[in-house]
């Protein structure tokens, strides 16, 4: 039987590899029933970019919206999942305009399955990034959110973030660090809501896909 929905979220634990120089996840128990406390309470610390998360435009533009200002409907609704086969340029996989031109896009949200970052517990820089020209092609097809199964839409070594900036210019939102290895290509409903972090530059999300055929008649 087909699952009712797919969970696209990375587990969050001390094992989850952060982006280099970013604050890793840690979790500390501050109250323990085992020690006689009334309940169990834990405190977590991490960069808001650890694990599956959405970037607010403010992350890459001083004037951009903060995460609590982005309209929630941008993160809920029809999404297409596509497997793409990035080509290697100087040994680094890249998603080009030609790669996305052939996709039959029917949704504002597009999730790109690259399989170039299979191990979330160990950071590696050799993941697929997106060329700004490819973002233009997606924008022209009406895409308003790009989700990727890698830690960034830009190269790990990029200091200028051209793909993030092109997304900003084209008013496309960014969802990063998805797990898509168990998800067949197709049409779904995406739900990936950020926490209401006042002034935040990003937020962790619990990203899920529901079968679109089962939800499209819902109000
Ligand atoms: Zn990010």
From TrEMBL:
Keywords: Hydrolase, Metal-binding, Tryptophan catabolism, Zinc. The keyword Heme does not apply. Its cofactor is Zn(2+). It comes from Ferroacidibacillus organovorans. Homodimer. It comes from the Bacteria. GO terms for biological process: L-tryptophan catabolic process to kynurenine. It catalyses: N-formyl-L-kynurenine + H2O = L-kynurenine + formate + H(+). Its EC number is 3.5.1.9. Catalyzes the hydrolysis of N-formyl-L-kynurenine to L-kynurenine, the second step in the kynurenine pathway of tryptophan degradation. Signal peptide: none annotated. Pathway: Amino-acid degradation; L-tryptophan degradation via kynurenine pathway; L-kynurenine from L-tryptophan: step 2/2. InterPro entries: KFase/CYL, KFase_sf, Kynurenine_formamidase_bac. One of its GO terms (molecular function) is formamidase activity. The keyword Mitochondrion does not apply. This is Arylformamidase. It is an enzyme of class 3 (hydrolase).
